Amino acid sequence: MKKITVLPGDGIGPEITREAVLLIEETAEKYGNEFTFQYEDIGGAAVDKHGTPLPQHTVDACRESDAILLGAVGGPKWDKEEASRRPEAGLLGIRKALKLFANLRPINVYPSLLDSSPVRPEIVKNADLLIIRELTGGLYFGTPRERRTGKYGTEAVDTLYYNEAEIERILRKAFELSRFRSKKVTSVDKANVLESSRLWRETADRLAPEYPDVSLEHMLVDNAAMQLIRDPAQFDVMVTENMFGDILSDEASMITGSLGMLPSASIGSEGPGLYEPVHGSAPDIAGENKANPLAAFSSAAMLLKYSFNMAGEAAAIEKAIKTTLDQGYRTQDIAGKGEKVLSTKEMGKAVRSFLPEHATVKL
User: Which residues are recorded as binding NAD(+) (predicted)?
Assistant: First the structure.
C-alpha cells in the first residue's frame, strides 16, 4: 500500500487538496489501487501551530512516505515575520531536506480554454512544453545572503552559486525526459553576463554528445521570455536555473489562461517526489469554496505517473479534466460570459464523474 503525505498549507490549500485526495481515492477504487494518507503542517499554518514553517515531524513524515501532495503556502498574515518564520521558508526547506533538485512544470493548453489565454489562440493552440527548473541552488540558496552596513548605508548581498555537479544533474534530467517527448532541449542562461551561466552552457555542451538523439539549443533568458509569448510551440523541454525558472514558468502560465491551471512536480534522484499546483494560496477567496482545483488535480496525476508509475491512471485523470472542460464546466477564474461557474467542490465532483471506465486511456 502506497503512502501519501498531504501538506494542505495555507489559504485555499486545504480546499484544493481535499478535492485532490477525493480524486485520488476515487481513482484508486475505480482502478484497483490502494493508498493511505497522512496529514502534516507546513507554511503559515505550521508557524501558527508550531512556531516554525517546517516542523521536524513534517520532514520525517515526508521522508517516510512514497509521495507528497502540497496545497499552497503563504499569505499577508505572515508578511512581517522574520525570514526564518516566513511560510515560503517551509517550502524551500522541504525541497532542500528531500533533495528535490528538479521542478517539472508542463505547459499545455486545453482546446476548450483557448479563448481564456490573453495570447491569441492561433499562437498558443499548439503549445506543449515542459519547463525544468533547478530547485536547490542559485540566488535563493547561495551564501553570503545578508544585509550589512557599508560606505553608502545599508547594503544587501545575495550570492549566485552553482557547482558543476548541480548543473550536470539537472541537465541530465532534461535530456532524459526529452526522450519521452520530442527530443529537443532548450537550455536557458545568461552566458553573455554571468559566470555561472557560462559554466552552465559549457556543461550542457559537454553532456550533449551522450544524448545523440536529442537536439540541444542555447537561449539567453531575455530572449526566452520573449519567445515564450511570440511562439511557445517552438519549445519542447526548457531547462534553466532556479530564479530564471521561477520567472519563466510563471510567465508561461499565461499561455494556458490561468495560473490556476498549472501543476508541478519536484523530484530528486531518490526518495519521494513533491507535487503541488503552481498558483499561490489566494487568501482573498480562502474558505469560500471558489478556488480552482484543476491544477491540484493535474498535480495528483503527475504524482501517480512519476512516483507510482501509474501512467494509465494519470492519463485517466487528465482525460476527466479535459472532458469536464469540454462540457463547459468552469470555476470563476476561467469562466467566460454565459458559462456555468462551479464551486471547488462541484468541480471536484464533476471531474470524478468523468473518470473513464479504464485507466489505459490515451489523451
Answer: 75-88, 280-292
